[in-house]
Each structure stands twice: as C-alpha cells, then as structure tokens.
Automatic annotation (TrEMBL):
Keyword match DNA-binding: yes
A Pfam family: LacI
Species, as recorded: Brachybacterium rhamnosum
InterPro entries attached to this UniProt entry: HTH_LacI, LacI/GalR-like_sensor, Lambda_DNA-bd_dom_sf, Peripla_BP_I
Domain HTH lacI-type stretches: 8-62
This protein's name: LacI family DNA-binding transcriptional regulator
Length: 342
C-alpha cells in the first residue's frame, strides 16, 4: 500500500534550502531581515516543494487570519453571483482567503454570522440584496468590521455600505424613452423586499416627474422570466399596450418579449422594452435587449478594498466615503439596443 502524500513543512523547506527553520520563518514574515541571496534560495525551495504556509499558525503570530468572510443568500441571480466572484478574485490577489456562507431557506442569519466570527475572519462582506440578510449583518457587526453590498444604506451601527446607483439607472431609462418619443411607459417592479427593486422603482417614479411621459408601476415581479411574462399578459388583457415597458431586470424583460410575441406584438417596434443588469444573453436576444449595465466586477473589487481599508490593510481611496459612513455609489450605464431604439 502506498503512503499518502505528506504536506511539506517549513522544516522541509529549510533542509532543501540549507538554512535554519527560523530563517524560513523570517523570509515568510520579515523578509527585510534576510539577505536577498538567502531569500532566493528559500523561495526556490518553497516553489520546488509546493509549500504553503499554515494560515492558523500565522494567525497565532500576527492575530490576523488573512481570512475574509462572505455571506450571500445563495441566489443564482446574475448580479449577486458576479459580485461574489469579483470579491473572491480580489481577495485572493490581496493575499486573503474567502470563507463563503449562504443564508438561505431555514438558515438562521444570526447563527451563521456567529459561525463566521468563530472561524476567525478578519472582516465580513455581506452581499445583502434583500431584507432577510439584515439579521446576519447585525449579528456579524457586533464584534468585527462588516461591509454590506446593497443599494440602500442599512440602519445597523458601524456597518458601511457600497452599491450601484439604482435610481440613476432607472432615470437613464426614462430619459432614453422620452428622447425616442415614447409617451407612455409601465414599470414591472421587482420584489418589494429587495433593496435594488425598491431603488429602481423609486428612480423610475422620480424620473417621470416633468418628463412628459405617462407612467405606471405594476408590482409583483420576482426577477424571473415567468413573472415578466405573467405581468405583461395581465397588462395586455387590461387594455391597449403602453408604448414602452421597463422591466425590473433582464430576466423579467425576456418574459416581456415572450408575452408580446405571443400577442402578435413586436418588441422595439410596437412596444419598447428595457431591462436592467445587462446579463450576457441580453445582446443576443431577438431583438437585442436595451438594458442598464451594472459594474458588478468593479463593485466586488471596491467592496473588498473598502473592507481592507477598514482593517488597515487595503488601498485607501477605493471609493469616496459619503457623510453618513457609506461610500459614493458606483454609476450604471444605459446600453441602447434594438428593443427600444428608434
């Protein structure tokens, strides 16, 4: 029977490099105290052996774990998934590992927040798209730095927030529809317990004032194509269609286009359709979907940089702080395609 492979140790590195155990430790933790030629021998040995420092041992020496906790709701939606991936990538480049925890179903957010603290995470990022995440934020913020990625500032002491300017994106949609001559628009709103949905609806309603466009909001969307199709079918049964439909996200907009087609109406010609998020398939629909593109990769990187700045280990100035302790929101960008262009 073959012997299972053994993880290389600092002693193995020391033996291969011909130096002491203490020298290897200095190269890893205080390289400025070691001659360059010795550092090179130790690094060559580390590379040859595939040695990786023990994170727990380093924590004992530095009281820092180089571990970032990330809490999400486990949603497969494009925005939260892209943001979480960007956070993990940025953390790895900054020398941090990520412990991902999902708050979903019957999971207790307070308990999971405590588990992240027990793991020794230096700080916690919460991708807090909806209100059910707030208890997790409150639990984690009691004893460790927490930054929430959300459209709305949270009423939780000590928690900073960063997000994308959702009202601005909605205003861009209304302004675009006005410039293309549309005079009536309906907003199919997303779920009311999601901060992004509330912010988009608010921006839409504000933009209607003085725009010369007749507007209405239909609630009840759940981010899915099915809900977009259902709400559109109900709208069409109630009377003549509006000149434009602004869906709360791209998936709902896909349902809108489907329902219009089944009713013999052409998206972009009979009814303008605009979504939000700019998911990958948006540009390949027939017609290609106009939408508001969100900088999810930048959002994830900025969130990680802000948290590391709070910990004293990140780049300052990743995002300008606002007077209430959050960060100035990132700007979205309207992408005009055939579904709404004249």
């Amino acid at each position: 029977m073959s012997t299972p492979p053994r993880r290389p140790s600092m002693a193995d590195v020391a033996a291969l490099a011909g130096v002491s155990y203490q020298t290897v430790s200095r190269v890893l933790n205080e390289p400025e105290r070691v001659r360059e030629s010795t550092q090179e021998r130790v690094r060559d040995a580390i590379a040859e052996l595939g040695f990786r420092p023990n994170r727990a041992a380093r924590e004992l020496k530095t009281t820092r774990s180089s571990l970032i906790g990330v809490m999400t709701d486990g949603s497969g939606l494009f925005g939260p998934s892209e943001t979480t991936t960007a956070i993990e990538t940025a953390a790895r480049r900054a020398g941090y590992a990520v412990l991902l925890t999902t708050v979903a179903g019957e999971a207790d957010g307070r308990e999971l927040g405590g588990e992240l603290l027990d793991s020794g995470a230096d700080g916690i990022l919460v991708v807090a798209g909806h209100d059910a995440m707030i208890p997790a934020v409150e639990a984690a913020a009691r004893s460790t730095p927490v930054l929430a990625v959300t459209a709305d500032p949270l009423d939780v002491p000590g928690v900073r927030t960063i997000g994308v300017d959702q009202p601005l994106g909605a205003r861009q949609v209304v302004e675009h529809l006005a410039t293309t001559g549309r005079r009536s628009v309906v907003h199919l709103a997303g779920p009311s317990d999601w901060a992004d949905a509330r912010a988009r609806r608010s921006g839409f309603e504000q933009a209607l004032e003085g725009s010369g466009i007749d507007g209405a909001v239909i609630p009840g969307g759940d981010w899915s194509p099915l809900s977009g199709a259902r709400l559109t079918e109900e709208l069409l049964r109630a009377g003549s269609p509006p000149e434009a439909i602004f869906a709360a996200n791209d998936l709902m907009a896909i349902g809108v286009i489907h329902a219009l087609s089944r009713a013999g109406l052409r998206a972009g010609e009979d009814v303008a359709v605009v979504g939000f998020d700019d998911v990958v398939p948006a540009a390949f629909l027939l017609p290609p979907l106009s939408t508001v593109s969100q900088p999810f990769a930048l959002l994830g990187r900025t969130a990680l940089e802000l948290l590391l700045s709070d910990l004293g280990g990140g780049a300052d100035g990743a995002a300008r702080p606002d007077p209430e302790g959050g960060a100035v929101p990132l700007a979205p960008q309207l992408v005009v395609r055939e579904s709404s262009a004249r």
